[in-house]
Design a protein that fits this description.
The chain is α+β, with helices and mostly antiparallel strands. It has one helix and four strands.
């Protein structure tokens, strides 16, 4: 599952967005993009399967921050603002 993650310069997760499944989403659906604010970074990642079932935003943000600090085996695309 693809996810957009916005972090601050200290690596704290500010916002996340889970992309809809491309196989089941309609082509006419609106697309959402998160933009980084000053001193923030937007990353597009493949969400690890161990994190997919987390329903608490607070827990997800904490575990995502730890995952991003370790570095993912797959490269994330980053956009600095």
């Amino acid at each position: 599952m693809r996810m957009t993650v916005v972090t601050d310069k200290k690596g704290r997760v500010i916002a996340t967005y889970r992309h809809p499944d491309e196989k089941t989403s309609r082509k006419d659906q609106p697309k959402l993009r998160l933009r980084a604010g000053p001193k923030q970074v937007v990353q597009e990642i493949d969400l690890p399967s161990a994190l997919e079932e987390i329903s608490s935003a607070e827990e997800l943000h904490t575990r995502l921050a730890a995952h991003l600090k370790k570095g993912s085996k797959k490269k994330a695309s980053k956009r600095h603002v």
